[in-house]
Structure prediction request, 192 residues.
Amino acid sequence: MDLSKKQVTQLVNGCIGNERSAQESLYRHFYAQMLRICYRYLKTNDLAQEAVNEGFLKIFQNIKTYDAHKGDLGAWICTIIIRTAIDYNRKEFKFFTEDFDDQDTDDFFLEPSVLSKLYAEDLLKTIQQLPDATRVIFNLSVIDGYSHKEISTQLNITEGTSRWHLAEGKKKLRALLVSPDNSSQPTDNTAK
Prediction:
């Protein structure tokens, strides 16, 4: 359910006035979508929920800076939530800061037949298996559409590092999708 301009104005004005009912309505309207976004960036459900809640706190504290003429409320909220999730990731790991050559960033092709067999949830679970830094950059670039320049600015890394992580993520995803890890299947070591 999309909000009308009038509803957005009422919610924003209510949140600026610290009206609990407006804050609750805004939270309830966007919570599920923002939680799904945080699941893409963070390894555990607890961290994702914590990031969403901290993100909404930032939203309520800064709602007066929202400008409807500059963009959609949902996009503004999404940007804050993504940045909050990235901040949580920064606490958990460090990015490689080495600069990589563009030669190391060849695109890796994923066959459409492999992708067509997967459901979105399965693909997201597979993306979750990527190393932390690679997963964050893959999500920012492929799913959220950020450029390498924007990613490098947000994460304080070079564009080459961003490109390398994206290429590495594509390569690892291809390997995971083409030949899934069979280590989760039980092995019988009791040969007779």
